[in-house]
Write a structure and sequence with these properties.
Strand order of the largest sheet: 6-9-10-3-11-12
Shape: globular
Structural class: alpha/beta
Strand content: 25-35%
Largest sheet: 6 strands, mixed
Helix content: 25-40%
Distance between the termini: 35 Å
Number of strands: 12
Number of domains: 1
Number of helices: 8
CATH class: Alpha Beta
CATH topology: Rossmann fold
Order of helices and strands: EEEHEEHEEHHEHEHEEEHH
Radius of gyration: 17 Å
Length: 235
């Protein structure tokens, strides 16, 4: 059974077509990776899955866990079990990371143990959310929150962007451990996260279209050899 099915999805934002006939199916228990250059439609796909209102679905549908969620509000999609670690989450003054953790964990996750897994000092729980965090701290905080939420389907937006090798290893191992037996979608430009997270299928998106899907190692090697020129040429 598919946990997420995106069928012939076309989306506009401010009148501009940003997704054009996208088809992706993620079976339950699998992790897929979406590769693509900047401006290819990766962020638009995340926003559409989450139901952000300024992303207007022109055609197609999105199904999650057997339910059509195409017209469902963002909050309701989250309640169904979709979680996301954003690439650039905003700082929020007056909201403590610990408060967010406790809301998400509902007393079912040990904050000390989880802090160790993502190498986030426990005193960060008393800090305002994302305020003054370094790049690596911000990424680890986002992963920390998603792991606390324990969603049915986890989306990790550019987890390997702007982090050093040490943080990449920590983040990669945390995501890999969490996704065992679960379903997820990794969004990445460079693909470095694949050193640590085993994905079942890779999709390459360019210009709002899925141009190819296949084994992650094959897709990644093709991109490393040729860059994204092979799909950019289709502009």
């Amino acid at each position: 059974m598919a946990i997420l099915t995106i069928e012939d999805l076309s989306v506009k934002i401010a009148g501009k077509l940003v997704l054009d006939g996208v088809n992706i199916e993620v079976p339950e228990g699998e992790t897929h990776v979406l590769l693509g250059p900047n401006g290819s439609g990766k962020t638009s796909l995340i926003a559409s899955i989450l139901g952000f209102p300024n992303y207007h679905i022109v055609s197609g549908k999105i199904q999650f866990d057997g339910r059509d969620i195409t017209a469902l509000p963002t909050a309701e999609r989250a309640k169904l079990g979709i979680g996301v670690a954003f690439q650039n989450p905003p700082p929020i003054s007056g909201v403590k990371l610990g408060d967010v953790f406790r809301y998400l964990a509902k007393g079912e996750v040990d904050e000390i143990e989880l802090s160790k897994i993502v190498n986030l000092p426990v005193e960060f729980l008393e800090r305002d959310l994302n305020l003054g965090f370094s790049g690596g701290e911000l990424k680890r905080s986002e992963i920390f929150q998603v792991l606390a939420q324990r969603p049915k389907f986890a989306i990790f937006d550019e987890p390997d962007s702007g982090v050093d090798i040490e943080n990449l290893k920590i983040i990669g191992k945390a995501i890999s451990g969490f996704l065992k037996g679960r379903s997820g979608l990794l969004i990445t430009h460079f693909g470095h996260i694949l050193r640590y997270v085993k994905a079942d299928v890779a999709h390459v998106i360019c210009n709002g279209k899925i141009f190819d899907s296949g084994k992650p190692s094959e897709m990644f090697n093709l991109i490393m050899k040729r860059g994204y020129r092979w799909c950019d040429a289709q502009r």
